[in-house]
């Protein structure tokens, strides 16, 4: 179940004092449209005096990845709530699409920091163009030229309890 | 220097173990990370995609001169230049696989 990137455009409902309210646009990562619209209101409420009851969503579009077969290095800036405070963080992922990178991020934050979807704000997702700009060693190690490694001691699944020969591990 | 003979590297020929293209040959075009690679088999009708190593088997064959993240066209040309698919079809491994398949169909 992957995440999608949505472009959500919304505004306050027009009133007599403000017949043409400002229109706001957000890029939201969510599993579906419903969650995307909900997150849009959550973030917009924090920034402007508007809520779902007195606002309207004008447009919802899926943002597709421009080059889904190009391997990209993404740097992601987040703000998340831990059990004792809220912190900023910068993480890097090597993925094919922005949505994949954000999905990996949520899984990673859940595993390493027990942070749930609701506690994480994605501030920025940026494709790192130049290899020198990569900051984390766990990504740098995959960017060395002529990278090669074996798959040592592969254990394959056995179909029966007894076999005539010991397995090959390569 | 290394005891290992088959490496995950750009240009390595692999057999797909599962999925809709199981049993087909492809070439590693780029390494994504320690779990996945982009594979491409333009002459064996395997579309360019990300694939996990768990569902791949490395073969002893590899293209020697393949640049990283080469496009399908470049891979196709290199495959034809080094005649890798023919080398694979002549190998004992491939012939054994073909023989097993023929016997199953009888």
Automatic annotation (TrEMBL), chain A:
GO terms for cellular component: ribonucleoprotein complex; ribosome. GO terms for biological process: translation. Pfam families: Ribosomal_L18A (PF01775). Coiled coil: none annotated. Residues 3-125 form the Large ribosomal subunit protein eL20 domain. Transmembrane segments: none annotated. Keywords: Ribonucleoprotein, Ribosomal protein. One of its GO terms (molecular function) is structural constituent of ribosome. It comes from the Eukaryota. InterPro entries: Ribosomal_eL20 (IPR028877), Ribosomal_eL20_dom (IPR023573), Ribosomal_eL20_eukaryotes (IPR021138). Belongs to the eukaryotic ribosomal protein eL20 family. HAMAP family: Ribosomal_eL20 (MF_00273). This is 60S ribosomal protein L20. It comes from Piloderma croceum (strain F 1598).
Automatic annotation (TrEMBL), chain B:
Keywords: Cytoplasm, Ribonucleoprotein, Ribosomal protein. GO terms for cellular component: cytosolic large ribosomal subunit. Residues 7-34 form the KOW domain. The keyword Protein biosynthesis does not apply. The keyword Ribonucleoprotein applies. GO terms for biological process: ribosomal large subunit biogenesis; translation. GO terms for molecular function: RNA binding; structural constituent of ribosome. InterPro entries: KOW, Rib_uL2_dom2, Ribosomal_eL14, Ribosomal_eL14_dom, Translation_prot_SH3-like_sf. It is found in: Cytoplasm. Component of the ribosome, a large ribonucleoprotein complex responsible for the synthesis of proteins in the cell. The small ribosomal subunit (SSU) binds messenger RNAs (mRNAs) and translates the encoded message by selecting cognate aminoacyl-transfer RNA (tRNA) molecules. The large subunit (LSU) contains the ribosomal catalytic site termed the peptidyl transferase center (PTC), which catalyzes the formation of peptide bonds, thereby polymerizing the amino acids delivered by tRNAs into a polypeptide chain. Belongs to the eukaryotic ribosomal protein eL14 family. This is KOW domain-containing protein.
């Amino acid at each position: 179940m992957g995440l999608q990137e949505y472009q959500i455009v919304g505004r306050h409902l027009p009133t007599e004092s403000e017949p043409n309210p400002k229109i706001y646009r957000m890029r939201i990562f969510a599993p579906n449209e419903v969650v995307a619209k909900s997150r849009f209101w959550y973030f917009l409420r924090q920034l402007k005096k508007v809520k779902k009851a007195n606002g309207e969503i004008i447009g919802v579009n899926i943002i597709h990845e421009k080059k889904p077969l190009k391997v990209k290095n993404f740097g992601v800036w987040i703000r998340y709530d831990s059990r004792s405070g809220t912190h900023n963080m910068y993480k890097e992922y090597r993925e094919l699409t922005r949505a994949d990178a954000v999905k990996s991020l949520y899984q990673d934050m859940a595993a390493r920091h027990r942070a749930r979807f609701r506690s994480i704000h994605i501030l920025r997702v940026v494709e790192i163009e130049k290899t020198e700009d990569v900051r984390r060693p766990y990504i740098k190690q995959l960017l060395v030229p002529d990278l090669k490694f074996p798959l040592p001691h592969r254990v394959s699944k056995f179909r029966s309890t007894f076999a005539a020969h010991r397995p090959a591990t390569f | 220097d290394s005891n290992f003979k088959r490496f995950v590297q750009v240009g390595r020929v692999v057999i797909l173990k599962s999925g809709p293209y199981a049993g087909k040959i492809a070439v590693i075009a780029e390494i994504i990370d320690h779990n996945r690679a982009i594979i491409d088999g333009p002459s064996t009708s395997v579309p360019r995609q990300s694939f996990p190593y768990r569902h791949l088997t490395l073969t002893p064959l590899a293209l020697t001169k393949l640049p990283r993240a080469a496009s399908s066209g470049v891979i196709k040309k290199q495959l034809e230049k080094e005649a890798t698919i023919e080398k694979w079809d002549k190998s004992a491994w491939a012939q054994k696989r073909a023989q097993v398949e023929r016997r199953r169909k009888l």
